[in-house]
Amino acid sequence: MAIVETRHLTKVFKQGELGAVNDVSLTTEEGEFLVFLGPSGSGKTTLLRMIAGLETPTSGEILIGGQFVNDLSPRERRIAMVFQSYALYPHLTVYKNIAFPLKAQKVPKAEHRKKVEWAAGLLGIGKLLDRKPRELSGGERQRVALARAIVREPAVFLLDEPLSNLDAKLRTSAREELEHFHESVGTTTIYVTHDQVEAMAMGDRIVVMNFGQVRQIGTPADVYDEPADTFVATFLGSPPMNLVRKDDVIVGFRPEHFFPVTVLAGRAAMPESLRAVDREGPYVPISLRVSHEEYLGAERILYGTIEDGAFQGNKVVSRMPSTLASPWSSGSVHAFAVIEKHLKFYAADTGKRTAPRPGPWR
Amino acid sequence: MSAPARKASAARSPSALGIAMFAPAVLYIVLLIGAPFALAILYAFSDARIGATSIHFAGLENFRSILQSPSFRMAVKNSIVFTVCAQVIIIVCSGMLSIALEKPFRGRGFVRFLILLPWVAPVSLGTIGWKWILDSIYSVITWVLVSLHFYKPYSAPMWLGQPHLAMASVILVHCWRLIPFSTVIMLAGMSAISREIPEAAAIDGAGFWRTTFQINLPMMTPIVSVAVLFGTVFTFTDMTVVYILTAGGPFDSTQTIPTLAFATGIAGSDLAAGAAISLFLVPVLVVVAYLMLRIAHRAEVV
Questions:
Q1: Is there a single domain that holds both residue A194 and residue A332?
Q2: Which of A10, A31, A67, A157 is an S-S bond match for A189, by CB 3.0 to 4.6 Å?
Q3: Is this prediction's pTM over 0.80?
Q4: Is A74 at the interface with chain B, CB within 8 A?
Q5: What CATH number is attached to the domain comprising A303?
Q6: Which chain A residues contact residue B208 at CB under 8 A?
């Protein structure tokens, strides 16, 4: 087990262009499950590949377990990586696939079978050892790739979107298994994904990236509840945070904090969690002209435009339990509200978080 | 290759348009391959000669006399040596070239272009160039070797005039011609390997040799066999290189089955014997064609 650290790591593919990764400094904790989250092209995979030793950094340093590894080849870094395509060797059986790292690292042949069986057993693929990769399902291939990664007990696991090739149902169960697996092995793991649900569910901490820069590092609760800038605020959450501009400040509030005022006043039938709302302090009334509504079963997403007040003309979204009544014909105007303490404030010029401004926000 | 056509024809009954589209290919095969092949079989069992006005059935007489002829046995041996040596050199060289040319580097496009040139140039022109390079009096190679004092001017090797040297020269010129072809095939095979697989091998701890011999080459086996089979056909049936460089000489030392068939049947005007000699190419080519179809079929399934 080891700690991975990067110092001012930068990768520029083409001179004169913006780097794929720019000045990234971060440190994992021992045994941590760290997730790199970002849209495609945000540099998360390049960052991972630099840690793996598959890309050479343009500048900056990488340390694994306190050792400077910039000049070490991938095989000397004691890492294991699972690729998005799994990269199984198609001409070798599952057994030989899993044993390949042992062979390559000159582990005595006598130990191979024991180790392969241990890894295969851990992932429940003991019966597949004689098959070829093309005879396996997507989920089984993913497990073989994981078994190949753990068989030589690496110091660090690097996972590059290992679930993105699975279908939606399998992905949920594979996610659970992967979490369980990480708990039982306890190896420091870096996991790259563009899927915020995966990141929120699995990560001990999340590194949110965009344009090769780290926008925020924090626990899932940190990055969701206290986004450091407008990018993080809109990248996390579905639908994303509402951002409305007022002079030099951008005010943000999550769609699930944006309710009909009747709910806040306690007049409608409402879930337990919302009933306490009244006691949570003053709220900002906003009248909303509904443009359209999406019914998603458990919840209802309402799209509309703010009719009056300080935020007039801004498009916003509300997300509420579908148990609330629905008089939401498009074009109608309704009284909505946000509790003031749920408002986040960002500087309009930099997009960075700023100190709360006092109301009233009418 | 043939499977989609088969599927398509099974899916709906052949329409007039379908037949019309298909006809040129059939015509081409029948006229330019089928008819000469049938003619060759016909001649091989006859006493046909250039200039003769009638032909008679001769049974297996032609085959009997060919099998007894020392120059035919020599030609078979030469054909095998020529094909096997050329293929080994071609595969090893084009394998190395394709590994070298796979990774991007400055000027790679230009180098690829240069390597492809021998394949693009007409065979006969390229070979005539080599004939000059290897000429007994004006050879540049000899001239260089002499100026470097490896040889005395009067005892320099005769590249095309000494039996073993002549065979080596023919083989090397043929390699020069076919290496580009199999390099291109192997490059295509390499780029079909997902980039992540060699990377996974690198992370798993494999070095260059292990990655090349245990991962990349086994994954390329199908494409390498395609290159070998095509190369075998091109070499085994090659006429141009041998004919232009040595015309089979000296003393039949570079005579191969195709050149012997030409020398006997056309130059020696014994059509029947020439046809019979050329029929000895068929068994080898049938085996190669069968293997090719099998590989193509397997590649389709995977």
A1: no
A2: A157
A3: no
A4: yes
A5: 2.40.50.140
A6: none
Instruction: Check pLDDT > 70 for residue A131.
Output: yes
For A305, the domain range is 239-347
With a cut of 90, say whether residue B42 has pLDDT above it: no
In a shared domain, residues A137 and A251? no
Please tell me whether residues A119 and A154 are part of one structural domain.
Answer: yes
Q: Which of B199, B202, B205 sits opposite A105 (nearest CB)?
A: B205
Q: Which of A251-260, B48-57, B70-79 has the lowest mean pLDDT?
A: B48-57
Q: Total structural domains in chain B? A: 1
Q: Does residue A270 surpass a pLDDT of 60? A: no
**DSSP characters over A298-358:** SEEEEEEEE-SSTTTT-EEEEEEETTS-----TT-EEEEEEEGGG-EEEETTT-BB-PPPP
Structurally, chain A folds into a number of domains equal to 2
Please tell me whether the interface predicted TM-score (ipTM) of this complex is above 0.85: no
Is B111 among the domain residues? yes
Has residue A189 been placed in a domain?
yes
Of the candidates B196, B202, B210, the beta carbon closest to that of A74 is on: B202
Q: How confident is the model at residue B4 (pLDDT cuts 50, 70, 90)?
A: low
Name the closest residue on chain B to residue A134, using Cα atoms.
Answer: B302
- Residues A104 and A164 both lie in one domain: yes
Set of chain A residues whose Cβ sits within 8 Å of the Cβ of B210: 104
Whether A85 contacts chain B with CB within 8 A: yes
Q: B200 and A81: CB-CB below 8 Å?
A: yes
Over residues B173-181, the mean pLDDT reads 90
Average pLDDT for chain A:
86
- Residue at B286 is within a domain: yes
In a domain, A42, yes or no: yes
Min CA distance, B127 vs chain A (Å)?
Answer: 41
Contacts of A83 in chain B (CB under 8 A): 196, 199-200
